Amino acid sequence: LTVLGLESSCDDTAAAVVRQMPGAGAEILASVGHGQAELHGAYGGVVPEIAARAHAEKLDVCVIQALGDAGLDLGGIDAIAVTAGPGLIGGVISGVMCAKGLAAATGLPLIGVNHLAGHALTPRLTDGIAFPYLMLLVSGGHCQYLIADGTQDFTRLGGTIDDAPGEAFDKTARLLGLPQPGGPSVEAEARHGDPARFRFPRPLLDRPDCNLSFSGLKTALLRARDQLVAEQGGLTRADRADLCAGFQQAVVETLAAKTRRALTLYLQQDPPEPVLAVAGGVAANEAIRAGLESVCAEMGARFLAPPLSLCTDNAAMIAYAGLELFRDGVRHGMDLPARPRWPLDDSSPALMGGGR
Ligand code: ATP
Ligand code: FE
Fold first, then answer.
1. How far apart are CA 243 and CA 241, in angstroms?
2. Residue 309: which residues within 8 A CB-CB, separation 6 or more?
3. With b meaning 16 or more CB within 10 Å and e meaning fewer, what string describes 244-280?
C-alpha cells in the first residue's frame, strides 16, 4: 500500500510517499518540502495570502519531486492523502484542490487528513507503537494533550488557553533582539544563563486540569526587560541569558507539571505499554525534553520523541495518516471540504461539514 501525501496548511508546501508492506512497518520513500520563511520574513509572521499563492505555485513541484525521489509515477500510488484542515484556509484549499485534481485525473481514492492527526499518528510511523498512548503536541501554533485510542479516536485532555509555547519562545526572542525562529536562539542563550535570577509566573498550576497558559509569561518578561533598560539603559549579555534561562525554566516546569496530570489521567486507562509521545517544533528543546523525560521516568511511562524533521510540519505524516485511514476504509469524495478549524476530537469525517 503506497500513499502520496500533501501538506500545505501553514508555511511549508510538502509532498511525501509512504509505503507499507503486509506485516512490515511503514517506510518513507520520499519526503520533500518548500519552506516559505524568506517570503514572510519581512512581515514578522505568516501572511495568509502570500502563503496560499506560494502553495499553489509549489504543490505540483513538490509532487513531481516526491514521486521522482520515490522512483514512482502516479501508477505506483494507491491513494492520495491531503491535509483538509485545520490551518490557513487559502493554503488548505490549495492542497485540497491539488489532491482532487490528481484523484480525478487518476481515479485514485482521495483521503482528507486532519493535520493534527498527522502529528498525533507520527509515533506509529516512526516507532510502530500501539494505542492507547498519550500525546503532547507542542509547537508554534498548538499546545495540547491528547489520548490516542485509535486512528480516528482522540480525547483532548486540555491545552493552552492562550499562546502556544513556540509562539512564546518567538515573542521572547523578538523582545530581546534575538533571531527568529525564537526557540533555538532562546535555548542557546539560556544555556549560559541563571534560571533563578528572574522568577517568571507558572500560571494555572494550582488547577487540577491539563490546561496551560503562556501569555502572562511574555508580559512578565517584557516588564523585566523594560525595568532593566530603565535602570541600566540597556541589556548586558548576562541579562539576556538570565532572562532566557528564567523564561525557559518557567516553560519547562509548567509543561512538566501538566504532563504529570495528563499522565495520571492516561494511566487510569491501564495502558499495557504506557507511552508519552511528543510532536511539534518545541519538542526540539533539550531542557523541555529532559523535563518531560524525568516525569515519564518517575511515572513509569516510555518517553518517545520522533526525529525533529517528523516533529515539525511535513507531508510524510499526512501520507502515513492517510495510509492508516485507508486501511480503516475511509474514502472522501470530490465534496471534501477544506476546514480552517477542525478539532481533533471532532471525529466526524471531513465531508460531514464545512466546520467553522
Ligand atoms: P503548527 O505546525 O502547530 O501550526 P508551527 O508550524 O509554528 O505550528 P512547528 O514548525 O512545529 O510549528 O514548530 C515551530 C516552533 O517551534 C517555533 O515557534 C519555534 O520557535 C519552536 N522551536 C523550534 N526549536 C525550538 C527549541 N529548541 N526550543 C523551543 N522552541 C523551539
Ligand atoms: Fe503542524
1. 6
2. 31
3. bbbbbbbbbebbbebbebbbebbeeeebeebbbbbbb
- What residue owns the CA closest to ligand 1's atom 24? 183
CA atoms of 152 and 167, how far apart (whole Å): 28
Per-residue pLDDT tens over the stretch 146-182: 999 999 999 999 999 999 999 999 999 999 999 888 9
Shortest-distance ligand to the CA of residue 183: 1
Ligand 2 centroid distance, CA of 312 (Å): 6
DSSP 1: -
What is 71-112 written as a DSSP string? T--GGG-SEEEEEEESS-HHHHHHHHHHHHHHHHHH---EEE
CA 217 to chain centre: 21
Give pLDDT tens digits for 207-233. 999 999 999 999 999 999 999 999 999
**What is the number of residues in the chain?**
356
The predicted pLDDT at position 40 comes to: 84
For the Cβ of 85 lying below 6 angstroms from any atom of ligand 1, the answer is: no
pTM of the model: 0.92
Average pLDDT over residues 54-60: 95
Task: Please state, in angstroms and rounded to a whole number, the distance separating the CA atoms of residues 81 and 54.
Answer: 20
Cβ 266 vs Cβ 151: under 8 Å:
no
**pLDDT at residue number 47:** 87
Helix, strand, or coil (residue 31) = strand
From residue 115, alpha-carbon distances to 108, 112, 202 in Å are 21, 9, 29
